[in-house]
Amino acid sequence: MKLPRCIAARLARQHGPIHGLTTPYSQLAAASLCARRRLPQKITVAYSSWWSGRKYATAVSATELQFGQPVHETHPHILKAGEITPGITAQEYHDRRAKLALSLPDGAVAVLAAAELKYRSGPVFFPFRQESNFLYLTGFSEPEAMVVIQKTGPRHGDYTFHLLCRPKDPQAEQWSGPWSGLQAAQDVFNADVAGDISNVESILPPLVKGATWIYTDIEMNKAGHPTDFANLVRRANSTVGVQRLQPLVNRLRAIKSSAEIANMRKAGQISGRVISDAMRRDWKTEKELETFLNYQFTVSGCDGPAYVPVVAGGPRGCGIHYVQNNAMLDRDDMVLVDAGGEYGAYITDISRTWPLSGRFSPAQRDLYLAVLKVQRSVVSLCRESSGMTLDRLHRITEDGLRDQLTQLGFDMSGNALQILFPHHVGHYVGLDVHDVPGYGRHHPLKSGHCVTVEPGVYVPKDERWPKHFRGMAVRIEDSVCVDDDSPFILTTEAVKEVEDIEALRD
Ligand SMILES: [Mn+2]
């Protein structure tokens, strides 16, 4: 039996948000809207009975329904009314799909596959993480799902959204936890058409049949042989051209909305405070510090750590992505920490380096200040009015570091800079730590681009370099949102001035 569907959700979809409507697209809000209109507050959900194949219907209240991810009605501490994922409303998800459809040629379809559950060893799996473009366009966080967005006309909003996913299955859900099901695909996630993913072989061909182009990143070939997906597409439409979808989604994802920036600011603020708090304390081992960071990110309001942190004492910081984090810490060393939290699937990327004793030695201070000066000046260029690209910022960073290190007595001839500063100064950040893969660092920075600025100096234990700096590593990294005329630093709570770091122990 079908849920009583309020047309309000459809109206909101067609005419924009309806003021005063809570969670305009969710079946539950639709139900509560119905309630305000004195319609029954109970929702009738049909389950197939696994043992007999009989259908039976049961009435459950909105908050008793279970979904594969938080929704406002079941998790009001995580989601506000109207939001599908933290900070991102159903309306924003619709706008993203509408913009994508607008960028497709007439008659084209976009096809996306959900991420697969990844296994660590044997039956032990990693926490599920949705494929970023799939997440960006739907907010739907389950494996075994597919999205087809059909362009249906020339205007914003002219598209049909098909979401194929797992139908409700109480027996299977008892083992693996609840998932959302086909009704929620329509009523929570606002799909125009929901389908059972196990019927993909019959559902997909008619959608592809009349398409002028297919935009997808699903593999068409594996070791020279067509994949199952390719065979399905070819059987349905042997002449259709296939294009990569990623570049089109990248163009949308590269410029962040105010809601996305707010999420990244929240992740940056929480994570920055945690890192400053870590600087206040004594640490004996890298493991203790790593555990503190991951725990504090999570209990302070982030979803959890955004990536495996680098916690590197002394010379181990010379390994750019040292993540073993299992050595003892020496009070005479600095520690290099590259760690950040994630909020609503948006990440923040922060690196800080500080003396474990709380006081910089003269050599530590010199090297630290050299990197800090360059970092500050490059951050100040993260504004649209500077006309910069990430690649140009990198060259400016190289020039700045060469200059600073020469002043400190380094011989900067030959390949010195490539050894001392072997990585790029920055990358885009967003849903991914290295966001919008393939987007390129040659794009002029525009308001809404979010990037990192992370110069570093890593001095090998080698006679080529001044003795008192050997084995030292410094990286200072902020996540920054480009604005018209000034950078918006997302991670400003992580202190970085020498005086501020030292004052934390006073
Ligand atoms: Mn980074």
Automatic annotation (TrEMBL):
Catalysed reactions listed for this entry: Release of any N-terminal amino acid, including proline, that is linked to proline, even from a dipeptide or tripeptide
Keyword Phosphoprotein: no
Domain of life (superkingdom): Eukaryota
Protein name: Xaa-Pro aminopeptidase
UniProt cofactor(s): Mn(2+)
Annotated family: Belongs to the peptidase M24B family.
EC category name: hydrolase
Record InterPro entries: Aminopep_P_N (IPR007865), Creatin/AminoP/Spt16_N (IPR029149), Creatinase/aminopeptidase-like (IPR036005), Pept_M24 (IPR000994), X-Pro_dipept-like (IPR052433)
Function: Catalyzes the removal of a penultimate prolyl residue from the N-termini of peptides.
UniProt entry keywords in alphabetical sequence: Aminopeptidase, Hydrolase, Manganese, Metal-binding, Metalloprotease, Protease
Taxonomic source organism: Phialemonium thermophilum
A Pfam family per the record: AMP_N
Domain Aminopeptidase P N-terminal: 88-225
EC numbers, comma separated: 3.4.11.9
